[in-house]
Structure formats: C-alpha cells, structure tokens
C-alpha cells in the first residue's frame, strides 16, 4: 500500500493574504489527495475564532486587550498596503469579480476536503482562550511533539 | 541513477531582504547541483515583473491601483526599517562594498544556474496580469497541483 | 541503526513572536529526540548577539547605523501591534503569569537540549559583524552549501 503524500502548514500569521495563501495550498493539495494539516498558532488563531469580529475574550485584562486588538476572521489585515482594513475588502471584491475563491470559500473548501485543523496549545494558554472559542471543525488543541508526530513523513511550511 | 536533490521556494513576499534570502538559497543550492524551483506568488510577483518601476498594469481600476502601489523590482521595500525605500538602496551599497552579490546579481546568477522560475496562476488572475508582464525567464504560469507535483521529493520553503 | 529525525530552521526574522515560535519548535523537537539546527540570518541575528541592547557594532558607518537600529535581544519587536516595544514586555509578563516559558527560557532550554546554532556568513559580512559579536553557543558561521548539507534528510522551515 502506498502511503498518502502529506503536507502540514504552521499558520503563524493572521494576515489576510497569507491566510489565502495557506488555504489555497491546503485545499489544492487536499484536492489532489494529499493528507493536509494546518496548525494555527499566535495570530493565525484569528482565522479560526468562532466569533468573527473584534471581541475581548480571554482570561485576564492583558489577554482580553490582545484578543480585542487582534480582531477575528473579519478583521484580518493585509501584510502590506492594508489601509486600515480597506484593502482586504477590495481584494475580496477583486477575487469575486475574477471568479477566484474568497478566503471564506477557501476555508469551507478545505473543511469539505477533510483538511485537518489544529490549534496550538501554548499560544492558546498565553491568550487565555479555550477550545470553545474556536470553530467546531478544529479537531484538537496540541503541542509541538504531537504536531511533529502528525507532520512526519511530509512537507512542513511555516506561513 | 541517483535522483538530484531538490529545493522549491514559494516566494510570497515582495520584501527586498526576503527576496535576497530566497535568491541566495536558490543560487547557492543550484551551485551545489540541486534542482531548484521558485514559485512567485502575491507580492513576490513584483520581483519578476518585466517593467521594473511603478506602473499601473492590469485589467480593471482596482487591479491597476494595486499594481501601481506594489511597485516593481526597483521598489521592493525592506521588511523592517524601510525608511520610504532608502534602506534597500543603502543595503545594496553595503553589499557592493563588501563584495556580496546584489539582488540583481543574485537573480542573474540563479537564471544562469538554471533555477526554474514559475508564477502563480491565482494571484496573476486577481491582479489582472498576464505572462507577458513578466521577464521571459519565467517558464510557466501554474496552479497548486502542478506546483506540488514539481516540488515532490524535495524541500519546500515558504518565504 | 535508525537515523535520527531532523528539523532545521532558518530564522530570518528578528520579531519577538517569531523567535518564540522558532525556539518553541526547536526545543520541542529536541525534547523528542530530533536533531535540530537553527540558522540565524539577517534580522534573526539579533536574537544571538552577545550584547543584548542597542549597540552600534560593525565595520563602517552604514553597518553601525543598521546594527544600532536593529537593536539586540532585548529590543525584538512584535510582528504586529508592537506599540513601540511595549507589547513584547506585556507578552513576556503574560507568559510568566501562565507559566509558559519566556523567550530567554526557551533559548536556554534549546541550548541545554543541544540545538545547534549557526550564523549566516553573508548577512554577517553585510553587517560588518564577526563571530565574537555573538553568544559563544553559536557553533559556526557558514554559507548556503554547508547549511543545505547539514539540513539534508530533514525538514526545513523558513521563519
């Protein structure tokens, strides 16, 4: 039996454009029958927060301030030329116009294609969040050892 | 017959310093006989635009504004301490002074060493660009499935 | 005899949060018996500078200005929401409060676990630095060919 090819992405960034890159690679790879894992860590956790808008979740004042400022899925900034959040909206419009999948569509496609979503234990602890703060498709909260174990035998990209 | 070692770089960033890192790795690897692929996507496309200066290319007003603001090869910013573009110029001077290859020299070296240059289909669609907007050394415009196929059996770096 | 699993990190970034990510992966991997290499390049060199504060080291005026502005270990900025250096301090406090290892503790753990630290020859030349400017745990200053050789047969992450 031939083992399936595998690709694992550490999504550290919460930038709109990098999230698009990550989910384009993830859903593209899953479509050609790769096993795909995405590990969300630090700013990347914003992409999978259940509440999609700015929201002061988390335990402790500092954590709440950070979580508020980080925003959620609808507040991801562009890594360059963000113009206070205008650019991600313009870019989404461009993507619709060109019939390119938007970020929301890419995430849904990835979920349909059984891309495995995991969240990083340490960043969740720092930010005082818990499993219930994330969309239900997140399978597990895990640390580095488990992540390396799941990624073994495939490529790892840090985005 | 031993298969050649392979390294593939997804160049997402259009930062001057990251482009230097990518082409240093690429030409260094090619020099020790690796197969090397670079896939230019999003901001990284600026590095291989034919017209090297700011230029409002692309179809549609929004795309033209983005392409103008992104600039071209001569307008790559530094990822930190950019000072409105002054730093890349200062750094190029430092590189000349220290006899380190400049970005232009690194790109030329990579081309001489048969590094394969590819451009990402989806970002080109979003930005309303076409193959003719890029330097002729770009071999092909391609999507994720083809990219994974070409990268198979080697390392992948996301820069 | 089974060869040890291996992971190599190119730490290009000098951001506080990315350095934490790099050292979390490095020490976590070393703890489960991976061979781990970190190659510090460009801004990443700040993490291993011997003098931990802002300091105008380097040969030549330009290099000295860059080195001063880059700061050192205690001046690593957050990649987002840095607030003039306040955020890394707040985040370190949060990490202490949550009993998560701080960056300094992570670096010490990595060293204890025999993570190999290397510095990039080319960036050191550009910045006019030398081996003696770095902490003694840095094993060697090396170029791309040697780096690829050391990384062979394992994963490579670019951070």
Q: What's the helix and strand layout?
A:
The structure is a homotrimer of 159-residue chains.
Chain A (H helix, E strand, L loop, with lengths): L5 E6 L4 H16 L3 E6 L20 H10 L15 H12 L5 H10 L3 E5 H6 L11 E5 L1 H8 L3 E4 L1
Parallel strand pairs in A: 1-2, 1-5, 2-3, 3-4
Q: Which keywords apply here?
A:
6 helices; Hypothetical Protein Ychn, Chain: A; 159 residues; homotrimer; alpha/beta; 5 strands
3D structure, described in words:
The structure is a homotrimer. Chain A contains 6 helices and 5 strands, in the order βαβαααβαβαβ. The first copy, chain A, is α/β, with parallel strands linked by helices and about 160 residues long. Chain A has one domain (about 5-140): 3-Layer(aba) Sandwich (Hypothetical Protein Ychn, Chain: A), CATH 3.40.1260.10. Chain A has a 5-stranded parallel beta sheet, sandwiched between helices. The N and C termini of chain A lie far apart (about 30 Å). The mean pLDDT of chain A is about 90. Chains in contact: A-B, A-C, B-C. Chains A, B, C: Keywords: Membrane, Transmembrane, Transmembrane helix. Chains A, B, C: It holds the Pfam family DrsE_2.
Largest sheet of chain A at a glance? Answer: 5 strands, parallel
**Which runs of chain A of at least 5 residues are low in confidence (pLDDT < 50)?**
none
Structural class of chain A: alpha/beta
Number of strands of chain A: 5
Task: Provide mean pLDDT of chain A, rounded.
Answer: 89
CATH class of chain A: Alpha Beta
Distance between the termini of chain A: 32 Å
Quaternary organisation: homotrimer
Reported by name, the CATH topology of chain A is Hypothetical Protein Ychn, Chain: A
H/E topology pattern of chain A: EHEHHHEHEHE
List the total number of helices of chain A. 6
Specify the CATH homologous superfamily of chain A.
Answer: DsrEFH-like
Number of structural domains of chain A: 1
Protein name (chains A, B, C): DsrE/DsrF/DrsH-like family protein
Organism (chains A, B, C): Stygiobacter electus
Keywords (chains A, B, C): Membrane, Transmembrane, Transmembrane helix
Pfam families (chains A, B, C): DrsE_2
């Amino acid at each position: 039996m031939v083992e399936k090819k595998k690709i694992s992405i550490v999504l550290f960034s919460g930038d709109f454009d990098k999230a698009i890159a990550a989910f384009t690679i993830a859903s593209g790879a899953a479509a050609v029958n790769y096993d795909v894992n995405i590990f969300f860590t630090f700013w990347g956790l914003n992409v999978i927060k259940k509440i999609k808008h700015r929201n002061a979740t988390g335990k402790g004042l500092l954590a709440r301030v950070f979580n508020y400022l980080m925003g959620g899925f609808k507040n991801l900034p562009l890594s360059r030329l963000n113009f206070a959040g205008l650019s991600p909206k313009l870019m989404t419009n461009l993507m619709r116009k060109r019939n390119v999948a938007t970020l929301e569509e890419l995430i849904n496609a990835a979920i349909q294609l059984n891309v495995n979503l995991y969240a990083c234990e340490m960043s969740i602890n720092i930010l005082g969040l818990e499993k219930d703060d994330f969309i239900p498709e997140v399978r597990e909260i895990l640390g580095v050892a488990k992540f390396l174990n799941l990624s073994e035998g495939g490529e790892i990209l840090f985005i």
